Structures are given as C-alpha cells and as structure tokens.
Amino acid sequence: MSFNSENYRRVRDAFDTKRKRALDLAAAHTEQLHLKCPEAAEIDRALSRTGLSLFRIACEGGENVSERLQAAEAENLELQAMRAELLKKLGLPADYTEPAYECKLCKDTGVIETRLCDCMRRALVLEGFRTSGLGSLIERQSFENFSLDYYMDNTADYERMRATYGRARDFAENFPNGTGNLLLVGTTGLGKTHLSTAIARRVIERGFDVLYESAPNILSDFEYDRFKSGRNETESLSDKYFDCELLIIDDLGTELVNQFSVSVLYNLLNTRINHRRATVISTNLTAQALREIYDDRITSRLFGEFEPLPFVGKDNRTRF
Question: Which residue in 238, 246, 16 sits closest to 128, CA to CA?
C-alpha cells in the first residue's frame, strides 16, 4: 500500500494543523482558568508534582515501592476530584482544559503505534478521490451501484457484461498483483465511465495512487510542457501520467491525432508498460477504427498488452 506522497504530505500537514489547534485551545483555556481561579492553578501545580513523584518512584524503585506508588496515586486522584468539583462550581465542563481532538484514538496524530489510524486512512482516501481527476463522479459511481439489469433484454449481452463487470472488479480488488492493463471498448452509454470510475474508487480505497483523465486533456498537458521552456517554467504537467500507479485514460480517439500526439501516446504507453505500471483505457472506437487512426506501434501495444473488455447492449441513457 503506497498512498500518493503529495496527498500524504497534504493530509499529514492538515493533521498537524488540527492537532496544534486543539493543543493551543486547551492551553488558552488553562490560562484563562488559572487567571480566573488561582485555586485551580495551585491544584494543577500539585498535580504536576504528584505526576513527577509517580515517575520518580517507578524509576528509582527501592523499599516499599508499591505502597509509595499507591499513596502518590491516591493523592493524584484526590487532586483530580477537587479540580473536577471546582470546574463544576465555575460552570465549566469537566474537559474544559483538555485538547478537543477530532479523533480520540490517535489524538489527531494519524498514527496508533506503528500503523495508520482509520481516521487518517479515510482522509487519504478522500484526498485520493479529490486529486484523481474524477470530481463528483467518484462519489456517485461504484461497483455496488452498477446495475446489470440494463442488459437483461438480451441474454448474450447480459452474459458478456456480467463477465466484463467481474473482470473489472477483479482488477480493482487484486491491484496491482498481476492485474495487467485493460481496454474498455464500446459505444457511448454502455457503462464504460461507470466501471472505470468504480475501478478508480476501489483502487484508491485500497491505498494506491490513481489518475483519471481524458485523452485530449492528457495531450494538452504534454503540449504545454513541450512549449513551456520559453516561459521559464520548470514544473511539469505531464510527469504525473508516468508516475501514478494506475492511469485511466478516458475517450481515447477523441483527441486530435497528429505526429505529436501519436508520439506522446506511444511514449506514455510504452514507458508505463516497461515499468509495469497499470493503465486502463476506454474508447468508443472499434478495433478496426483504432487501427485506422493509430500506427502499428500503438495498436500493437493496445492489442498485445491490454486485455479487451467489451461493452455491449443499448445506450442506457436513452432508456428513460
């Protein structure tokens, strides 16, 4: 499991910020309490002393350790009770000076011992959703709400779509072990976007870095980088397409096909294949149409390195 490093940094910074905010607010409440009630300040100083006594007794050992620890603990409990009663008289909640952490388990550190707390794991997943390029689609579309009922009109279509659904889900659940690459092929309205979104969602949930973008937008980023040198810019828009663990290319064939775009596409696919980074491509074009648009360098990789998943049936968007 390897959450995107930039996403991890942002989430880590957000956790550090909210933990610091909770600690600062608790410190401010403590200061206000001490100014308002000197007795509370004295109790807190006494609690600090008993805490140090407990630590010293445990470290030093010696005779009657158990009895001395019990006496120090009893004094500590008595002071805590006095403090709680004082807060009550002042009309303040018992946890007034305690940090109000969002997560009580990890205290907003994001970590419990050596493992990620569930709260940080959820935050990383949500950040993965946000940066995946899918926008609100990833919140609405999943394997769970993909319905095969749309394909019931034709038994052959239903069986093919059932197999396509099963393979797509298997790809996501077992990523990246032996998943290979997928080519989602079929006309509009047959569920390609829904299943590719579902793949992205599940792979992100499992802790991997996913980037979803249309073929035209990908080519636009490469073109931007190609001409950026004259603008004295150093940040690359295209590196992310090589680096992400799963790249999903939507609408292949809708981009402007020319010598530059073909060269970029070949380099992108070939590099990802050589580095064993998985890619999912969706297209409305048939195999014959792909051969007519792209040269052998690209089609040999599409048909040799990608597993085709056919989408069949009637356009779901015309059923209502």
Answer: 246
Closest C-alpha to 318, from 197, 137, 187:
187
Q: Which helix (H) or strand (E) holds 251?
A: none
- Give 317 or 202, the one with higher predicted confidence: 202
Tell me the per-residue pLDDT of 256-310, one tens digit each, with 9 for 90 and over: 889 999 999 999 999 999 999 999 999 999 999 999 999 999 999 999 999 999 9
**pTM of the predicted structure, to 2 decimals:** 0.69
| DSSP label of 285 | S
From CA 16, how far away is CA 10, in angstroms rounded?
Answer: 10
Residue 232 class from Cβ within 10 Å (0-12 exposed, 13-18 middle, 19+ buried)?
Answer: exposed
**Cα-flanking dihedrals φ and ψ of residue 31, to 5°?**
-60, -45
Closest to 42 in 3D by CA, of 33, 51, 53, 55: 33
Distance CA 103, CA 89 (A): 29
